[in-house]
Design a protein that fits this description.
Helix content is about 45%, strand content about 15%. It is built from 14 helices and eleven strands.
Length: about 300
């Protein structure tokens, strides 16, 4: 089966449990294929945990979940060395971060000290515990969920940690037809989780990631991307624009989106499709737009409209 067929089968399988959210499913897979990490910001009960379970199932990944709370410590995530009196030695007990897919649930309910425990893992696929570096599995993918910052008991993620997430998504309320279908399912009413079949083997995931590195981006396409990035830096509507790392993230996701649609080259529509998910959490709007996610996406769309390919 061609790579696009494999990806389409995975999207269709996840769509069985996350109804009416194909665009978000494709973006989440794009984030994983691009070797990034995903931040999902939404209200409780919108399907964030369902999406992480489904991604683990269709890719055959080991999966662990950590519920972030105000009393969670870094050692609860990374692991700890325990002294054995019989052998007079310390043995390391790995924490839940040693898995292929980690769900960091409600990450902004933990203190900044605990949040920072993920920084090295997300940037370098390793953790350092008591001076010793320990590699993490490959692939290693973090899905972090975040409650809206206006809710009580939350600690906003600092810009340095937001930048570690390749994409940020919002699932939103389902369409009424999709919600009706969900309500009619007996397993949903009983709170049972539906296990999905594996659609992407480890070798196929490696092939997809290898194909991303071979996608061509023309000079004209790079000119277009640079004009978009420059617009975020120079426009009075943004207090802080995209950094060089943000520009690289945008290009990497555009290349991945091209692979997901069986293209060996990037087109402007690839950049436009991934731009809100890649850029919105990296930008700082100015003036009346501060703190308004929808307004920020509208500003990005305005930039796309102004900067023609």
């Amino acid at each position: 089966m061609q790579l696009q067929g494999v990806i389409d089968a995975a999207v269709a399988e996840i769509a069985r449990v996350l109804l009416g959210k194909e665009a978000q499913i494709r973006l989440a897979l794009c984030c994983l294929f691009a070797r990034g990490h995903l931040l999902i910001e939404d209200l409780p009960g919108m399907g964030k945990t369902t999406l992480s379970h489904a991604l683990a199932d269709v890719l055959g990944l080991s999966w662990k979940r950590v519920q972030f709370t105000s009393d969670l410590l870094p050692a609860d995530i990374l692991g700890v060395s325990v002294y054995d009196r019989n052998d007079a030695t310390f043995s390391f007990h790995p924490g839940p971060i040693f898995t292929q897919l980690l769900l960091a649930d409600e990450i902004n309910r933990a203190t900044p000290r605990t949040q920072s425990a993920l920084l090295e893992a997300m940037a370098e696929a390793q953790v350092t515990v008591e001076g010793e570096r320990r590699p993490l599995p490959d692939p290693f993918f973090v899905i972090a969920t975040q409650n809206p910052i206006h809710q009580s008991g939350t600690y906003p993620l600092p810009e340095s940690q937001l930048d570690r997430f390749l994409m940020r998504l919002e699932l939103g309320y389902p369409h009424p037809r999709a919600e009706r279908e969900m309500l009619l399912r007996p397993q949903a009413a009983a709170g049972q989780r539906q296990v999905l079949r594996q659609c992407i083997e480890a070798s196929q995931l490696a092939a997809i990631r290898k194909a991303v590195g071979q996608v061509h981006a023309s000079d004209n396409l790079l000119d277009y991307l640079q004009r978009l990035v420059a617009c975020t830096r120079q426009s009075a509507e943004f207090a802080v624009g995209l950094s060089p790392r943000g520009a690289l993230a945008l290009l990497g996701c555009a290349r991945t989106w091209a692979v997901m649609h069986s293209r060996g080259h990037v087109v402007p529509e690839d950049v436009q499709m991934v731009l809100p998910a890649v850029a919105a959490h990296r930008l700082v709007p100015s003036g009346d737009f501060a703190g308004d996610g929808l307004a920020l996406v509208a500003l990005l769309q305005r930039s796309v409209d102004v900067i023609r390919p």
